[in-house]
Amino acid sequence: MTSRSSRVKADNQSGSSFPGEPEFLVIGKLGKPHGVSGEIVMDIFTDFPERLKQGVTVYVGEQYLPLQITNVRSHSRGILLFFEGYQSRGEAAELRNLLVQVPTADRPELPNGEFYHHQLLGLYVIDENGTRLGRITAILETGANDVFVIQSESGAEMLIPAIESVVEDIDLEEKQVRVHLLPGLIPGE
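and the corresponding structure tokens:
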């Protein structure tokens, strides 16, 4: 099972909207202005930075201020952006520390069997016997594979590797993930 920072692979179709999904997805955070003509640094949180190009509209901050990108270039810490209407260092500084978002509906389609992390958070995890283990509360990126953090109703946490030999099925409509528990995955057993 392969995944990247905003998606996880499984055996079901993905990319469509489901009830309860967020309306916007965070793709970056604006940093400090760069230079004097309105350029600003953005830390990238998306696996798809190639979407950020001239003419694209993104939504900034809690008010979802629509801003059109007029230029993009790479930078050692992420990318540098120019937005329409922001032509000075002072104007760009007003955007510092704000989150950059895109509508969920505009996210790129994933191949069949891959899911965005936000689609998995909150899903129930059940074992092959139908026993409910808890809900996915976080997804850790380890480099080798993602790890689901499962919180039981009693508050106990367990870590389940998001690998093909463990994750049998992800069903977004049923809001559940079926897993095969390998020895040692449940604490105390």
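(Above: one complete record from the training split.) The first helix runs from residue 89 to 93.
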